[in-house]
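User: Good morning. I'm curious how pyridoxal-5'-phosphate would be positioned relative to this chain. Could you predict the structure with it bound?
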Amino acid sequence: MVFFSPSERVSKLPVNFFKGLDQKLAASAQTGQPFLDLSKGNPDLPTPRHIVDAMKEAIEKSENQAYPPFLGKENVRQAIADFYKREYGVVLDPTKEIAIFHGAHIGITGIPQALLNPGDYMLITDPCYPIYYSAAVLAQANTYAMPLEESTHFLPDYRCIPDHVLAKVRLLLLNYPNNPTGALATEAFYQSTIDLAKSRQLPVVNDFAYASLGFDGRKPLSILQTDQAKSVAVEVYTMSKTYDMAGWRFGFAVGNASIIQALNHFQTHAYSTVFGAVQDAAACALQSSQQCAAEIAHTYERRRDVLIHGLRKIGWEVTAPPAGTFFAWLKVPKGYTSETFANLLFDEAHIVVAPGIGFGKRGDSFIRISLVNAEERLTEAVSRIKALHVFE
Ligand SMILES: Cc1ncc(COP(=O)(O)O)c(C=O)c1O
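Assistant: Good morning! Here's the predicted structure, ligand included:
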């Protein structure tokens, strides 16, 4: 075999952080030890029945066996517009302000490629969803990561950005509800974001992947609810978490028409189209009763309560329980880093968690536990951690 080297761009892409964990887990699983994997965010609940049924019906339609329209079917674009109007009071033009794609991941890696030139800066946060770094590499852009601190509710302070970076920033990428911290954005924060973006003519993207997962009666805000947001911002939405449709690969971006146009232009070359039947099923999910989405969110909230209550009971001081998403971002005990503590849990309790360092330098005193696990598994994890006696 001739070995062909990858392109410079591909060589610069970081190795998927979770790959190492998976390898370690696979090696240990062979020993027959029962491991609890609480590291991932793959929804464990089934897609609601009416959406599956809509898909079955849609597959039979001959129109879905041919190429779908480049910019998406009219029915799904209209369903997205209706959904945003109903859920957030945001009015969208289905022809100019909506782009569809195969899941949020594609939109998030696509937008920087559609907007940035080599050497431009993209503002992200530390910690953040690691794919944002990959998105910057693919766009040949630089990143500046604004720290997220518990003391400021894991919202960035734009005053931290040095002037020389600010001068070269061409994109601001946010993610609320936030993975990994579980924090929600506030109206005031979004207003300051839009004010900054307008004053500097800066495009803003909010990755709204956990849109439906707000706890304690708090409905996560859309950034587009902010006054004049559409003049600078788009929001990326996915069916993966709201409707447990992670395997179906459907997401969309809504908002500023020029960003949508650039993204659509990029996408028609890079990815072509989304299966028409998936678009029909997505339209069904968005147009039907949202009771299923509320039930999914309640399930995660109950799991959050079981986990946090259990951890507090064994002496783990949880100062910032998640207000949304399906992750708990937990400070490790004194004397540990995120990796040494994750290793302790792995070796002694046979629990796999995501070390915070995988989400950025500021994550190194945290681990992330995922709530895509049944209450019994979370309870079992708490009792295994208790047996380590680290919090006594
Ligand atoms: C913050 C965030 N954005 C985007 C995604 C990807 O979503 P999708 O399944 O739509 O590609 C994830 C998945 O875990 C995520 O955590």
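The longest strand covers residues 121-126. The mean pLDDT is 96.
Let me know if you'd like a different ligand tried.
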